[in-house]
Amino acid sequence: MPIPRHIRAARNPGAKLSYWQDVVKPGLLGMMILASIALCGMAAKAQEADTAPALRPVSLMTLEAQGGALERQFFGKVAARQTVDLAFQVGGQIQRLDAPKGVYVEEGQLLAELDLEPFRRAVTRAELSLEQAERTVARLDTLADQNVGSRVQAEDAETQAALAEVQLREARDALRDATLRAPFDGLVANRLVANFNTVSPGQPILRLHDMSEVWIEIDIPERLFDLIEDPRAVGFTATLSDRNADIPVELREFTAETNGVGQTYTVSVALPDRADLNPIPGQSASVVVRVDQTLRPGFVVPASAVMFDADARPYVMVFSPTGADEGQVARVPVTLSSVDGTTLQIDGDLQAGQEIVLSGGHLLQDGQSVRRFLGFNEIN
User: Fold this and answer.
1) Who has the most CB within 10 Å: 87, 279, 329, 374?
2) Listing from the earlier edge strand, what are the strands of the sheet with 179-181?
3) What is the dihedral of CA 271, 276, 280, 286, to 10 degrees?
4) Alpha carbon distances (Å) from 217 to 238, 241, 271, 341
C-alpha cells in the first residue's frame, strides 16, 4: 500500500517543497482566478447600473372637481328702483308745495303747483285770438267767392287761424305743466325748494323714490366680477338688521363699466315684497354671495404646479402611469383664472382624477419618463 504524500513529507522534511508545489500552490491559484472572475462580473454589473438612466422622482397631485360653495360678503346700501328729480316745465311762482319729506305718495297725486292765474290768462288770450282769426277767414272767403276780395288774402287769413290754434294748444299745455303730479307711487325723498319761490323751467323741485321694488347696491371688485356670470351658480342673501337677516334677494342689474375708484362694478339685487320689511333708501345693508363651485369648470391648483414657456404661455405636466410607480409626463396648455383673487384655477384638456406634477415641472421634458416621489424614506 503506498504511503500518503503528507506522511512521507512528515517523515522526510525535504519533501515539503514538493507538497507546496504539487498541492497548495495550484489550489491557491484556482481560488484567485475564481475571485477575479467574480469581481469582474460585479464590476460589469455596477458599470451597467451606472450607465442606465435614473428616473427622476416627481411629486404629484390629483385633479379634483370643484365642490362646495364659495362665499363672499359685501357691504352696500338700500336704494330705490329709480330716483327722479321732479321739475316744472314752465316758470313761475310756487303757490302750493304739498309734499312732506318721507311721505309715500300715489301716482297722479298733486305735489306742487305754480300760480295758475297767468297761465289761465294766456289761455284766454289764445282762445280769443283763435276766434278772431276764424272770423277773418270766414269774411275773406266770402269776399273771395264774390270776386270782391283777394284769394291770397283769404289764404293768409287761414294761415293766421292755424297759428292761433297752435298758440292755444301751447297755452293749455303750459297751464297743465304748471301743476306737478307724482308720475308713480313713491317716497318723497326731499324738497329742493321752499314754497312761494319763483322757479325757472326745468329747475328741480322734489326728489322722488320709486319704491315699487327696493334694491341693494353693492360694489364688487373686478377680479371677482365673474362670480355673477352664471345666475344658476350664484345665490344672494341680504341682511338689513338683526331682525332681518338672511333675506333671499335676486340679481337685477349691474353696471357695464367700472367705478372711478377701486375698479369695482356696482351690482343691484332686489329685496322681496314682504310686510315685515320697511327699508329706506340709504340704509346700510350687507349681501352674501354664494357661488356653487360644482358648476364652474376648471381645477384649483397651487402656483407651483403651473409653468410658463418661452412665450409666457402657461402649462402643466400631466403624469401618465406606465407601471406601479413609473410613468411619463406630457405638457398640456392651460388657461389661468382666479375666483377670489387668492386661489389659482386652471382649465384646459384636463379631467378630474388625472395627476399632474406638483412642483419642479420646469425641469422636465415633454414625454420624459419619471417615477413617483414616495417620500424621503423611499428605498431605491
Assistant:
1) 329
2) 179-181, 110-114, 92-97, 198-199
3) -50
4) 11, 16, 11, 22
List all residues 6 or more positions away from 34 whose beta carbon is below 8 Å from its beta carbon.
none
Residue whose grid cell is 515539503: 16
DSSP state of 47: H
Closest CA to 288 of 129, 69, 109, 10: 69
Cα 60 to its chain centre, rounded Å, is 31
Which of 258, 266, 263 is closest to 228 using CA atoms?
266
Cβ neighbours, 10 Å, residue 35 = 10
Mean pLDDT per 10-residue section of the chain, whose length is 380 residues: 51 52 59 63 53 79 78 92 96 94 94 97 96 92 81 90 96 97 95 95 96 93 69 82 83 85 87 88 91 72 92 94 91 84 83 92 92 72
Pairing of strands 56-58, 369-372: parallel
CA–CA gap between residue 154 and residue 150 (Å, rounded): 7
The secondary structure of residue 100, as a DSSP letter, is -
Residues 6+ apart with CB under 8 A from 368: 56, 328, 329
CA quadruple 8, 14, 15, 20: dihedral, nearest 10: 140
C-alpha cell at 237: 342673501
The span from the CA of 186 to the CA of 175, in Å, is 25
The CA distance from 128 to 149, in Å, is 25
Polymer length in residues for the chain? 380
Which pTM was predicted?
0.62
DSSP secondary structure letter of residue 14: G
Which three cell numbers mark 292? 356653487
**Which candidate, 319, 300, 310, places its Cα nearest to that of 361?**
319
Query: Burial, 174: exposed, middle or buried (Cβ in 10 Å; 0-12, 13-18, 19+)?
Result: buried
